[in-house]
C-alpha cells in the first residue's frame, strides 16, 4: 500500500472550496435588497434541456428592491417566467416584452429571523466541512508518522500548521456569517 503524502496546499484548497460554497449559499439568501445572485439557482427549460437562468438572460438590479431580467430569445420569455414561478422564491414576475421585472416585497421581522437561522445552518455545514478536511490532514500525518517514519517533532509541527489553517478558515466563516446576519437584520 502506498504511503499517503501530506499536502498543505491541498488541505487549504479544500477548505477554501467549503468557504466558496458557503459564499454561494449565503448569496442566494434573500435580504431586504435585490441581488442578481438571488435567481442564480433558477433552472429554465430551454431548447430541450435545463439551463441556468444566466445562460438565457441577463440579470440586473435597476432599483434596490427590483430585479430586471432581459431575456435574449423572445421565444424563451414564457419559459423563464414559468421557471421563476416554480422556483419557490416567492416572487411574481411582471413581463414587458422581453424584460421580466421582479419586485421584492418587504421582509417581516419573523422572516428575517428565519433567514438568520438558515444562514447559521449553512455556516455550520461549512464549518463541519472544514473540520473534516482538518481530520483528513491529521489522519494522513498519523499514518506518515507510523508508516514512513515521520519524526514526532515534524508531526507536531505539521499538525499545528493544519490547526492554524483550520482556525483561519473558521474565523473567515464566522466573519461571513456576521456580515450576512447584519445584512439580513438591517431594515
From TrEMBL:
Kindly give the InterPro entries that the UniProt entry links to this protein: Ribosome_recyc_fac, Ribosome_recyc_fac_dom, RRF_sf
Q: Give the main location.
A: cytoplasm
- UniProt name for this protein: Ribosome-recycling factor
Q: Belongs to which family?
A: Belongs to the RRF family.
Instruction: Output the GO biological process annotations, alphabetical, semicolon-separated.
Output: cytoplasmic translational termination
Protein biosynthesis in keyword set: yes
- Which Gene Ontology cellular-component terms appear in the entry? cytosol
Annotated GO MF terms: ribosomal large subunit binding
Where found? Cytoplasm
Q: Which organism is it from?
A: Variibacter gotjawalensis
